[in-house]
Structure formats: structure tokens, C-alpha cells
Amino acid sequence: MKDKIKKIMASVFMADEKTIADDIRQGDFEKWDSLQHLNLMVALEGHYHITFEPEEIMDMTDLEKIIRYVENKLNK
Where in the sequence is the domain holding 27, given as residue range(s)? Predict the structure, then answer.
């Protein structure tokens, strides 16, 4: 799942997939601004056919948290 999410992130951020580190965080990656964060959430929702709550979107600020939220949604 991590690799697929990293591919989605690279696509949304228009970045080389190699620049998406396993420990990527919103504040540490220049292309991950507030608008791109929302675009990422929409892309993840569309790809996995899930919906995030506003509180979840606000908390999904690093790859580890994103994976956790997506897995939780898929396992419901």
C-alpha cells in the first residue's frame, strides 16, 4: 500500500516518485502545501473509494498517518 500511496503523492505533487521519502511530512516537503493536501485527499478518496472526515484530513500530515487512515477505512 505504501508504494501505491507514494505514487499517488508523486502524481498529485507533480514530483519524481524518488523524492517521496518513506518519512515524508507535510511541513518538510515544499510541494505539499494546503491546496495540494486537499488534492491528495481527493485523489486518495477516488482511488480507494473511501471518504475522509474533515478531522482526519487535518491529521493526515505524514505518510505513516495517511497509510493508517486508508487502511482503517478499507478494513471497515
Answer: 2-74
> Tell me: the pLDDT tens digits for 8-54?
999 999 999 999 999 999 999 999 999 999 999 999 999 999 999 99
Domain count, the chain: 1
Element (H, E) at 38: helix 34-48
Alpha helix ranges (H) inside the chain: 2-13, 34-48, 54-59, 63-74
SS3 62: strand
Query: What single letter denotes the amino acid at residue 64?
Result: E
Here the CATH number for the domain that contains residue 61 is: 1.10.1200.10
Is there a contact between 66 and 29 (Cβ–Cβ < 8 Å)?
A: no
